[in-house]
Amino acid sequence: MVSRLRSSLLLGAFAGTACANIYGVGELTSGTEQAGAAGAAGSRQAPSLAGAKANAGSGGSVAAGAGPVGNGGSAAISGTGSTFSSAGVAGAAGDSGEPPPSCAELPAMCGSSDSATRDCCASFEVPGGTFFRSYDALPDAGWDDPSSPAHISTFRLDAYEVTVGRFRNFVAAYPWLPRAGAGKNPENSQDFGWSTTWNALLPRDAEALSVALTNCGAVGGAEPSPSTWTVLPDANEALPINCLTWFEAFAFCAWDGGRLPSEAEWNYAAAGGREARVYPWASSDATDVDANHAVYQSPIAKVGSKSPGNGRFGHADLAGNVWEWNVDWYRGTYSVPCDDCAELASDVDTSDRVLRGGAYYNEPPYLRVAARGNAAPSVRDSGYGVRCARVAGSGY
Hints:
Layout: E1 74-76, E2 83-85, E3 123-126, E4 129-132, E5 149-152, E6 155-158, H1 164-172, H2 206-215, H3 246-255, H4 263-271, E7 323-329, E8 353-356, E9 373-375, E10 384-385, E11 389-391
Parallel strand pairs: 7-10
Antiparallel strand pairs: 1-2, 3-6, 4-5, 6-11, 7-8, 8-9
């Protein structure tokens, strides 16, 4: 489970999370979890770098205001004078080269000054191939077991984490219901996409969504909300949208003509395929990370601001800034064989989902490509965001 690691000095120094529904300490495990013992629920111990689990907390709940989602209409945010229209834009970017709905009339404002692109909706092709999941050959964290091979077909992955500006266009189109089967991976015959039973787990309207995002982390007024969302556009538009539940992340990507990446796809892109990188940038040293490569142990930052940390295929912020929701249910071990696989079956909709990539509040070990996180799909946290995957040859 994903931690909120606040100490910049000690890996084991944890502070209480600001979000009401947050799971505690993170998981750093090998693909086969051959080493380590699980910590008791509710404990505050740090995870072992040999692959041990140290899980804290349990549970999770649907955000306040969640309920059946309707179609049509608009919702005015009380006291702001801002009205969210449900008309919005619909459809998906395809071979026509049209931008996805989230980038309608959005200025090119992403990336650093030396980035090849500042287009927040850019997506880069990830050439297919085979690799070993959660493997980087370094024995220091137990990620040197090449027993979980996977084959990934070519796909596209957004260059940047979804920004506040892009998500604002989604809120303008909200309430929006994904149709049954939306957001599925065409390369995986077992992927049936969105289930309409999840509609009740989305906020009921634009106002409820905005309020839920705004209040993420504002627990009893103990501290200011760490949410990047603002009701009106401001200086946060190029920051990654955070505080998203898994259901909202899935719905956004489906609306935007994409889908959530599978854990295997995300892992493959971040590892540079067969290169099995320790971090997304070229490195063979587990300590080769600094403030030039990733946003960690520091305030959340504009997407793409750390271009030296871009991955092999050009993607920014695959380490740090925000954890990224994957489509998979969380399992402690990987399925073998894996051919465009994803964990899509679970007994209940509240079972944990996978998060990858580490967040702005984490220490470097959580930024490792092989590191895994998991949380209940209705949990909000200031470190939870998303980036969308898309069909190869399509996109923008």
